[in-house]
Amino acid sequence: MQLKQTISGNWHVMPICVETDNDGVPFVTLGSHQLRLDLEDISGEFEERAKTELLETPERIQEGLKKFRELINAEKGLNLPIDDDKFLLKFLRPFKCNAEQAFKMMKKFYRFKVKNPKYGGLHVTPEGVRHVFDSEVFMFLPTRSLYGGRIMIINAGTKWKPKEVPLVDMFRSIMVSIEIAMMEPKTQVGGANVIIDLEGLSLTHVYQFSPSMAKLIVDWVQECAPVRLRGIHIINQPYLFSMLYALFKPFLGEYLKKRLSFHGTDYKSLCDKIGESSLPRKFAGTADIPDYPGSIFSEMLFYYQNKFQDFYNYGYIAELNDNQLISDESAKSNGTSIKTCSKAG
After folding, report:
1. If we measure between CA atoms, which residue out of 116, 109, 131, 328 comes closest to residue 216?
2. What is the phi/psi pair of residue 189, to 5°?
3. Are 326 and 47 in contact (CB under 8 A)?
4. What pLDDT, on a 0 to 100 scale, did the predictor assign at position 3?
5. Local confidence band at 121 (pLDDT 50, 70, 90 cut-offs)
6. Average pLDDT along the chain
7. CB 30 within 8 A of CB 16
8. CB–CB of 68/330 below 8 Å?
9. Cα 186 from Cα 100, distance rounded (Å)
10. Which helix (H) or strand (E) holds 281?
11. Which of 42, 123, 221, 246 sits CB 3.0–4.6 Å from 128 for a disulfide?
């Protein structure tokens, strides 16, 4: 619930819920802001950023798309909607329309799912990780950073209950969040900022990780995710964090090291990095953003469930399906239950 002032000056309670605009696009009103996926083409400020930061021109885009299609067509077993400019641009744009570099990353993106089938398929959809968003472990802010970046929050301490949200689903949620970032042209240009809130981090949380899992997560973020990562901001980390960081540190490349910031409880330094007007008051910001139930965000994402299911049909499909079958059969033989997802109502 949130308070809203009427024209007459009176205040009344407004429920926080998912609404749709005239085009059927879902959004959530949060204070003076709207939480929505920005799927429209870039214009204005973001168009200028694309020109200056990504050297983007209509000619470079068309040249890059042409070369990109040629590389995709020449790759055996890679199934993609090559006539869809918007789809191809989400890979091409972060690499300044360099088709060769974008194609190299794209292959890693889809090869990862072949090599790790339990992190692919219908598990990696809004419905597949609904319980993670419902529990508010992953949250999105309706505002953007100083540089136009999407702001994501991972509550990896108090709100994370490993028995309810196992680490495998945490990682799947990262993958869903990256897919969301890739879908948004504004985020393709402005990038993404991740705030990891570790208040309440305990040994139970730390023991969920192994060196191999830490490496898998790091490799995915720095080698496979085609998104401009502006920064990873660690806040409220206790002394116990040193144990967890020791697992990840050996696998961090320069790309991630340069983007890591450790703020502790110094929210001023967080505001300096992301923008005071972009952050809610609980982080010492000035943005009018009330807390909202995670289930609301889940409900909004369900509008895009079919789009995520379409993503399942892209990539090295024949290899992915073979490996998925082997993975599921192995899980059954080991007595592990296989979670299936039905279409959202």
Report:
1. 116
2. -90, -50
3. no
4. 45
5. low
6. 88
7. yes
8. no
9. 23
10. none
11. 123
Q: What is the pTM of this model?
A: 0.88
**Residue 333 has what pLDDT?**
45
* pLDDT at residue 287 greater than cutoff 90: yes
C-alpha span between 229 and 13 (Å, rounded) = 37
Which tokens sit at 195? 């705030």
Instruction: Name the residue among 279, 276, 256 with its Cα closest to residue 139.
Output: 279
214-272 per-position pLDDT tens digit: 999 999 999 999 999 999 999 999 999 999 999 999 999 999 999 999 999 999 999 99
Report the alpha-carbon distance of residue 217 to residue 213 in Å, rounded: 6
Q: What is the pLDDT of residues 316-336, one digit of tens each?
A: 977 766 665 444 444 444 443
Predicted local distance difference test score (pLDDT) of residue 322: 63
> CA nearest 173: which of 112, 116, 217, 210?
217
Q: Any idea which residue has 């819920």 for tokens?
A: 17
Q: Which long-range contacts (CB under 8 A, 24 or more apart) does 213-216 make?
A: 213/167, 213/171, 214/247, 214/248, 214/251, 215/251, 216/116, 216/171
240: number of CA atoms within 13 Å, CB side?
13
Residues 6+ apart with CB under 8 A from 12: 3, 4, 6
Cα separation of 227 and 218, whole Å?
A: 14
What proportion of the chain, given as a percentage, has pLDDT over 90?
A: 79
Higher pLDDT, 205 or 343: 205
- What residue spans of the chain are helical by DSSP H? 44-53, 58-74, 85-92, 99-115, 130-134, 167-183, 185-190, 203-206, 211-219, 241-248, 254-257, 267-274, 294-302, 305-311, 317-333
Q: Which residue has the tokens 């990256």?
A: 178
